[in-house]
Amino acid sequence: MIVGVVLLALLAFAVFSLQSWRASALSQVERLYLLMSGVPVILTFLLPAAVSLRGGAAPTRAWLNGASQAGVALSAAMFVAGLYLLWKRQGRAESMDSRLALAVLLASLPMLLLGVVLLLYLPWT
Questions:
Q1: Is 116 exposed, middle or buried (0-12, 13-18, 19+ CB in 10 A)?
Q2: How many Å apart are CA 34 and CA 103, to the nearest integer?
Q3: What is the DSSP letter of 20?
Q4: CA angle, 14 as apex, 114 and 74 as ends, to 5°?
């Protein structure tokens, strides 16, 4: 179910990023951020799901847990970096670029989903 949601989010991101509404010139750092925004989702959801579907043995579980934890940590770091890029863009009096905003949302998806799960289960444990 989660993999389906992630794939739909990636598809929506691709559709919206290819449209040219409110698109302005991106700096080199912003283009790199746009390119790397899917890495946390791949590390957190898609890589463990693909290995598990392939029939990964028990020794790969620790490695997959490490990949998921790295994906969530990278997601948090990229969220902060994306907010900084959006803030710097606003400081330069440039228009908000929808591709960059969607990249920040995509990069923060694992962190946000983990936060929702923590809010659901932590107060009642």
A1: exposed
A2: 6
A3: -
A4: 35
What is the value of pTM for the model shown? 0.75
Spell out the residues 6+ positions from residue 36 whose beta carbon is closer than 8 angstroms to its own.
Answer: 78, 107
Burial class of residue 111 (count of CB atoms within 10 Å of its CB; 0-12, 13-18, 19+): buried
Burial 43-76 (b: 16+ CB within 10 A, else e): bbbbbbeebeeeeeeeeeeeebeebbeebbebbb
74's tokens: 């990278």
Distance CA 98, CA 78 (A): 17
pLDDT per position as a tens digit, 24-68: 678 889 989 999 998 999 989 888 888 878 776 666 677 888 888
